[in-house]
């Protein structure tokens, strides 16, 4: 009988311990309510403003737990130079998180007319109030805004009459781009004519008459060098010049090869290409050429 009583007492103690442990776990697992931007602030959240009424970005914002009542978050926008209504709009500035949900979004819309070429602004969104306290870490979201210029073939082919090579005091001279061939929605191949054509950078096989912008008419450098364009990353439009024959007689060392890469701007209509030329004697110092219309 005594043993049975001990067993009953042991079971009661175990049950009480289990209940207390569960209650403690519930307390540990309870998540406090904080409002925050769901994406932590980073140095550069880039937004390229397009000439499109639907150009906008949605910024996720929310609360760290779910409630059975609606809750509000209040935000304020600011910028060092951009003006609301001229460069951008933000809506809403009071966000209602519905009961049973934990997140929503804020819409930031850039105004294309407010962004001439070269203008860059940073817009800050900050949680300033609401029904729950703000998370100390994710209360501010910053967006760097600038114009996006569509890549238009007709605007980028043709003569670049203000082209310069960084190693040459001569110039500007005329280079040109032709044979645009689309290879995808954000890529194309082109031909670049007379890249690096100034007399002291022309690597040998020059036309003394000047009739072909420095290069002999039979040289690939004059006939056109193949290059690939890629603008899939709006913050980095790239141009690649793969290894290929540059001139046919490089200072008496036979054919030379060119290899280069760089960037281009559809807004400014410029190409900046850094390249090297190699022949049987070795590789010459790198040259940076900027093609400008």
In angstroms, what is the radius of gyration?
32 Å
> How many distinct helices?
3
- General form: elongated
Whole-number mean pLDDT: 85
- How far is it from the N-terminal to the C-terminal residue, by CA? 105 Å
Task: Describe the 3D structure.
This protein is mainly β and 293 residues long. 12% of the residues lie in helices and 43% in strands. It has helices spanning 2-29, 153-156, 220-223, and strands at 35-37, 46-49, 57-63, 71-79, 88-91, 94-97, 103-110, 120-130, 140-147, 158-165, 173-184, 187-193, 225-230, 238-245, 257-265, 270-279, 282-283, 287-292. An eight-stranded antiparallel barrel has the order 10-11-12-13-14-15-16-18. The longest helix has 28 residues, at 2-29. The radius of gyration is 32 Å and the shape is elongated. The N and C termini lie far apart (105 Å).
